[in-house]
Amino acid sequence: MLQSVSAERIWTELKRLIIGRMADHVIRCMIEECKLQKYLGLPESPNVNRFAVVFSRHEGNLEPMTMIASLCETPEEIERFHKKTKWDKQLDHVTKKC
Fold first, then answer.
1. pLDDT for 39-56, tens place per residue?
2. Which UniProt keywords apply (predicted)?
């Protein structure tokens, strides 16, 4: 069923979740318990521990793409996320700098 959800819709909803209340717990559950990373365009083994540290240090005051980057290990993983979610072209320069 999740395969039929549009890439744009995935990004719209994920960016709300990833900086929202209790995002560290929500994302950990989505990845470790529900195994949703492949549907979200995330790496096979996202770094949920680093995500939790970044989230707790900044209390959700970071941009959603910064939080996505904290789940990734390489620029290639960020680029795959970008392609999967059809991330806004105006922000494309961010992945090129990594």
1. 998 999 999 999 999 999
2. Magnesium, Metal-binding, Nucleotidyltransferase, Transferase, tRNA processing
